[in-house]
Amino acid sequence: MLLTNLLKARRTRTMNNTFYGKLIFELSKEGRKGYSLPENKLAEYKLADLPDTLKRQEAPCLPEVDEMTVVRHYTNMSNNNFGVDTGFYPLGSCTMKYNPKINEQMCNLPEFTHLHPLQDEENVQGALAVYYNLQKSLSELSGLSEFTLNPYAGAHGELTGLMVMRSYHLANGNPNRVKVIIPDSAHGTNPASAAVCGLEVVVVKSRPDGTVDVEDLKPLLDENIAGMMMTNPNTLGIFEHNIAEITKLVHEAGGLMYYDGANLNPMLGKCRPGDLGFDIMHINLHKTFSTPHGGGGPGSGPVGVREGLEKFLPNPRVTREEISDGIYWYHMEDSEDSLGSISGFLGNFGVIMRAYTYILTLGKDEIKNVGPLAVLNANYVKESLKDYYELPLDGVCKHEFVFDGLKDKSTGVTTLDVAKRLLDYGFHAPTIYFPLLFHEAMMIEPPENESKETLDEFIEVMKKIAIEAKENPELVKTAPHNTPVRRLDDTKAALKQIVTYRELLSVDEL
Ligand SMILES: *Cc1c(COP(=O)(O)O)cnc(C)c1O
């Protein structure tokens, strides 16, 4: 019953969409208008005296449409998209959590949106206070001494953090410390950031249980080690229980410990990277702290450091001075030892505002439930499905877990097929074919704010697909059947992007 309803809902949405497939140019009718602009008063004041040579001689090639057509066109296009506002999105390693609408209200306050980055310190005190307070909140949640909110993304944070690591070794007269140890289960951005930073990547192996192999690590620790990057719980959703020993070994070898905190979700309220011995970390505000993301943005990857490393953080830094009892003044300051500037101004303010609102909305007590609930949800889904899907690493997971495809692979149905079939039932696919440790990896992360009902629907659909894969494999192999577009060539879509109408007209097959 539930499944038929879901299928029906999905079909109705696409079939009723009369505008689907049409381009805005195809809806154009000569002479139709969708705007009424006020008279140009600027000419009167001689403010708009453009010389004729600069004026357009021919009318621009724009679609001529009425307002309703434009609104329906874009609204219908947006309905063809999948997002956290439309359905469950168990994309592992991405923490696709709900973005509370109050976040949008707060970052749309005109007092913030009308600010200009070149305004003087004295008339942006409110924005600087938000920036400063978020730095402090992140320090408290992570156990690190100071944060910069300047980096624009997780990978950008990694690069910034590694630059702190490099600056530290250079300041200590150790230019040869250029090797960074990274586990084979790490997110791809880790080795990429190290390479961009000019450092050398050394891979440490995982043990069969998915954690870092300490015996494989020991011989790698020499006088050229800059540090080690770790994700904990790791990309397989497993807590690295040897973390104290690993931290001790790397520190003894003179290296620094870097924590990839893109997904801090399972740790919130339970465990702090600073207390585990990490020296530098980044956090993805656009994952753990509820900013919606996907399709490349917007993001923010604050970097935190332990005491003693603050001076290397990028410029400018936001500091606070008590000018009288309980009254503060906020400064933008540059430090001489800083690694320099890594972004324009102070980073992505909209994302910072959303994260700050999210933290204040939950408050000190409620935020402690985030981690435990995310872990509970992940384990609930895992346990409910492990008879149908191959679970290579059994045991309690943290916020996410990995299946290695269907348990019964005899009909040749792959992880990709299952992911496509999920779309037919109105669910976004999990992360697939990552991490690379398993051939048919399917990485599932149900964040804390999903209800038990939603998780039960997802579980029912996943079981149903496993049964379909056995009884009617062709149905799954040819999925999706109900989506506006079928299987696309992802690689071609990324490499040969069509970004204008004219380009589209010249494409023969789509
Ligand atoms: C998402 C993610 C990153 C990269 O973050 P971006 O904002 O996409 O650059 C790094 N590490 C892990 C573990 C992640 O999940």
Query: Tell me about the biggest sheet?
Result: 7 strands, mixed
Low-pLDDT runs:
1-18
Strand order, sheet with most strands: 1-7-6-5-4-2-3
So how many helices?
17
Estimated structural class: alpha/beta
Alpha carbon gap, first and last residue: 36 Å
Which overall shape is indicated by the principal axes computed on the Cα atoms? Answer: globular
CATH third-level topology of the domain at 102-367: Aspartate Aminotransferase, domain 2
The Cα radius of gyration reads 26 Å
CATH architecture of the domain at 102-367: 3-Layer(aba) Sandwich
Give a description of the structure.
By secondary structure, the protein is α/β, with parallel strands linked by helices. It has helices at 2-15, 67-79, 101-107, 110-113, 125-142, 154-171, 189-196, 214-217, 243-252, 285-288, 349-366, 370-385, 415-424, 452-471, 473-477, 490-495, 501-505; strands spanning 146-148, 179-183, 200-204, 225-230, 256-261, 280-283, 303-305, 317-324, 327-333, 401-404, 431-432, 441-444. The structure holds pyridoxal-5'-phosphate. The site of pyridoxal-5'-phosphate has 14 residues, from helix 6.
